[in-house]
Each structure stands twice: as C-alpha cells, then as structure tokens.
Amino acid sequence: xxxxxxxxxxxxxxxxxxxCVALAISVPLGIQSFLTNTTDPAPLVLDVQQGAVLxxxxxSSDFILVPDQTTDVPDGSIIRADQATQAILxxxxxxxxxxxxxxxxxANTEVTLEQASSPRxxxxxxxxxxxxxxxxxxxxxxxxxxxxxxVTATARSPQGEVIFxxxxxxxxxxxxxxxxxxxxxxxxxxxxxxxxxxxxxxRAVVRLGQPPEGGLAGERPLIVNGSFTAPLDPAWRIExxxxxxxxxxxSVITTTIVGRRAAVFERTGPSHAETRLxxxxxxxxxxxxxxxxxxxxxxxxxxxxVCGSVGTECPMMVKIDYRDTSGANREWLRGFxxxxxxxxxxxxxxxxxxRRFEHQRVLSNTWVSYDSGNLIDVLTTPxxxxxxxxxxxxxxxxxxxxxxxxxxxxLLMQD
Length: 415
What we know:
This protein has 415 residues and is mostly beta strands. It has helices at residues 5-37, 375-379; strands at residues 39-41, 44-50, 53-56, 64-65, 69-70, 78-81, 86-92, 99-105, 109-119, 128-143, 151-156, 161-164, 167-173, 177-184, 187-191, 194-198, 202-207, 213-217, 220-221, 237-240, 251-257, 260-267, 273-284, 290-302, 316-324, 329-337, 360-361, 368-371, 387-399, 402-414. The protein contains two helices and 30 strands. The longest helix has 33 residues, at 5-37.
C-alpha cells in the first residue's frame, strides 16, 4: 500500500482549517441568532369590565370564569365574552409600564391568543408580537407606538388575515364575512393570495372563500380630536354648570393613561357643580344608515351615590343634542357611576328627561368601554320621528366631588 505522508498532512491541515473557519463563522452567527430570535412571553393582562368572561387555557379542556383580572393568559388560550359582557386584553412591554397593544372585546366575541412575545435580549432588533384569531364577534384593536421597539400585530379570522400598523381599528367577524375599519393607521388585509391596504376612514370586507375588497367608504368620524392627542382648544371647549360662585370650579385636563391620551374631569367641593367638555358638531345625519358612539370611561371617585336624587349627577355623563324630522330639538343622555345607593333614594336614570335611558354602573378604578349601538334607532321617537342633525355632544361630570376620565371618543356615521 502506497502511503503519502505529505498528502495526509495537507489533508489534516486543510480539514482543521475548514473546521476552524466553520466554527469561527457558525459560533458568532449562532450567538447572534440566539440573541436576536430568542423570545419570552409578553406580559398580558385580561380585565373583566362587565359580565362574565370565560377563559380556556391550552392545558385545560374546560372554560373557567375569570375574576376581575388575570395575568395568566398563555399562548393558545381562548377568551370568550358572552352576551352583555366586555373585556380588555392588554399586551405590555416587559417593563410592565408601557402598553403596546390594547384589544377591546365586545359581547358575543371569541378570540384565541395565538402568540404574544417580546425579544428576550435588548440587542434584538425584532419587534414585540401579538397574533390573534378572532373566531366571531367584534373587537377594537389599538396598536400603540413604541419608543424603542416596534410592534407587529396581526389578527386572523376564518376569512382572512389583517396586519396592523400603529393605530386604531374595528374588526367584526361573522360566519359569512370579516369587516375591518381603520380609524387611525393603515392595515393590510389578505385572503386567497390577494391583499389590499386600507387607510384611515376606509373599510375592507372579506367574504368566506373570496379575496378582500378594500378602499370602501368607512364610518365617518363626526368628532374632532376624540383621541385627545392635540390640545383641547379649538375642537373642544370647557364649560362650568350651575354652582356656588364662592366654591372652586372643576377642571378638565388631558394626560396619558394606559398609553393613551385621556380627558380627566376633577373637582372637590361641598355642594353641586358641573364640569363640561363640549364640541359643536352641526352634522346632517338625515340619510345615515347608522350612528354609533364609542368611548371608554373611568370613574375614580364620586361622593354623590348613583346619579343624585333626579338622576343627573353622575361622575360622568354624555349628552347628544339633536334635531329630528318634526323640527323639535331633543337630547339623549346617558350616565356612568360606580357608587350605588343602599337606600335607593338616588335615581339610575334622568327623572326629569322626556325619554328615560338607564344609566350604567361601572367598576371603580376600571376602564369600561361603551358602545351605543345604532343611535339612529335609539334616537327615533316612539311616534317615528328620526334624527336629522346632530348639533352638539357634551361630556360632563356632575356632583360635589368627583374624578373621572374618558378616552377614545368616537361618533361614527355610516352612509
């Protein structure tokens, strides 16, 4: 057998060199990949706003009733909001200070959390990620801008998939179709190998087994600066109701709460006062198919139980002034309160209003979203007079001492 020591030495040397080069390349790449792609579960909070919220974790075969709040929502969990139920799912930064995605679940909605993750290491350029599957129902999705890391948020349904940029969106899923409306921001809607992008005030529809239809006229916002990201003036003005002139008036300021701008109403005093935030609209709604009011309310403190003796002293109230087809000027009033009245002396409705609408009790120190439903139906009188013009919307706090807040105010009209 012919041996060539020189060839063997070169072979060993070249193999060793190749292994050395491979290790020199693969080890740093492996470390870089580990630092870049390793994730941890993102902190989540599920808040029950009203009603009974059910949760099924992936390790369980049964739904359980959620208490007021839980942070134990692992990937694969199913959240179900039944009739007359609302909940908020919030994804936070790992620092537990900054909210990144806020998902409002309305009644009769089922959502599966597919993934909620954040990069483990600060050197990673990857974004936070939230992936949802909306089986049925209606959700409102707020994707918030980050200061040092972006967010990728997606929502799938049986009909298609939506990728969201920072902004606010309404998504509704039925057996037949997916509807997505962009309030702020842009969203890409995909199905059947086709995609469309919708911009603010646009809407897309995806019917089962069909490509998406985009660029449709969305619900038109009638309120200016309902997000309170700009100064209150000139869109809003602050007014003060009847009160003792020797006592201090209330105040309305804007500040950041749960990552969103809020209007905060506050007053301390021994006797009655009102603090109002008013916007003149003067918008024709004669041919509107729908008119819906959305906002979230927080009641921190009130000293007058329920809404006072005649039902007009809630710590937060909303009033819409409008004109109907009879030519009459009318108003619609709803209140929100946290403190009940054990003696049942104070009224949970406006006692001296022409039409009575029940006020809503909310949990103290908890954000609760309000969805009016179609106000065209609500505002139509029993004798058939429909609203023709919305003249003004007013949010006001009433009582002696109170602290309350509102965020994400929208009055949306669909032609």
